[in-house]
Amino acid sequence: MTTLRDFLYQTRGSLIDADIPDPRLEAEMILSHELQVARHRLYAFQNDVLTSQQLGNLESIVARRIQREPLAYILGHREFYGVDLQVSSAVMVPRSETELLVERALLVCLERLAKDSLVVVDVGTGSGCIAINLAMHLPMCTVLAVDISAEALDVARVNVQNHHLGERITLMRGDLLENIDGPVDVLVGNLPYIPTGRLDQLSPEVRCEPRSALDGGCEGVDQLIRLLEQAATKLAPRATVLLEIDPGQSPVLEKTAMELFGDAVISIEQDLAGLDRLFVMEVSGNDL
Predict the structure, then answer these.
(1) N or C, fewer C-beta in 10 Å, the chain?
(2) Is there a single domain that holds both residue 111 and residue 252?
(3) Over the stretch 225-252, which tens digit does the pLDDT of each residue have?
(4) Backbone angles phi, psi at 105, to 5 degrees
(5) Is pTM beyond 0.85 here?
(6) CA 133, 235, 256, 123: dihedral to nearest 10 degrees?
(7) Per-residue DSSP letters for 229-261?
(8) Does 82 fall in a domain?
(9) How many structural domains compose the chain?
(10) Residues 56 and 113 in one domain
(11) Residues 173 and 51 in one domain
């Protein structure tokens, strides 16, 4: 017989042997998923015995995880900014670093909503994690979510429907802003920004994610620069652009932005690790 406590202990050891970070947390997440019990309540039932079916399901999940398949893909969902989202191998797994982008976008919108109704565009929406959180917290905004991948948009559509935001979020297929007429008041994006040469150095889990969602070209800024170039004719007066970036990319992005938006105000904000993570640009109040 295998109790919940036995499973947690054994699985933690297996994950440690596979060099998987946060083994205790992942063991708890796996068990919580199978039993449909909140993680913090598992230990109240730690002496309960798992059924043979439950144990078989759990062993299958652990076997896949030991092969370094992302846990979010195995379980089929991931929490992001307090919202549970379905994910699949068609989209990048939402990360805690991107919550900084959501928080900053919410602040920008809330500061302006007293005076304006806003059009917010999330470029490279993937699972829809950014657009969904913005729509949930900003009911007066029009939110457009764009991705070039039809498969990614299918995942985003499920998440939008699950959170009853079908009338609040418009999903669009397109290459960055090519199908957006504008004017755009707030432009947010978590686009591919990993330099091509670093892709093979990423963890096995990250290498399972869509390459198109990771590969930013030689210096990692190809898509970011293309977006800024397209935005030059799409942004509203006093628009704000917020982009997640890789540390070290700010100089080339600042240079490009100043060439395109001469009197824009640009700042770079750090994540919790103190690394440059967010490119913020406030454009002029004059018509572009």
Answers:
(1) N
(2) yes
(3) 999 999 999 999 999 999 999 999 999 9
(4) -65, -40
(5) yes
(6) 30
(7) HHHTTTEEEEEEEEEE--TT-HHHHHHHHHHHS
(8) no
(9) 2
(10) no
(11) no
Instruction: Work out the number of other CB atoms within 10 angstroms of the CB of residue 287.
Output: 7
| 49 and 129 inside one domain | no
3-state helix, strand, coil in the chain (%, to 5): 45, 20, 35
Q: Is the pLDDT of residue 272 over 70?
A: yes
277 — phi, psi (to 5°)? -135, -20
- Residues 117 and 227 reside in one and the same domain: yes
Any long-range contacts for 137-140 (C-beta under 8 Å, 24+ apart)?
A: 137/106, 138/106, 138/109, 138/110, 138/113, 139/168, 140/113
Q: Which candidate, 81, 86, 54, 64, places its Cα nearest to that of 15?
A: 64
What's the whole-number mean pLDDT along residues 80-94? Answer: 97
Closest Cα partner for 267 from 259, 246, 257? 257
Q: Is there a single domain that holds both residue 62 and residue 143?
A: no
State yes or no: pLDDT of 285 exceeds 70.
no
C-alpha 288/C-alpha 232 separation (Å) is 7
Which residues, at least 6 apart from 212, have a Cβ–Cβ distance to it below 8 Å?
Answer: 148, 149, 192
The answer on 233 and 188 residing in a single domain is: yes
Position 288 pLDDT exceeds 50: no
User: What are the pLDDT digits (tens) for 130-172?
Assistant: 999 999 999 989 999 999 999 999 999 999 999 999 999 999 9
What is the domain range of residue 35?
A: 4-67
φ, ψ of residue 84 to 5 degrees: the values are -85, 130
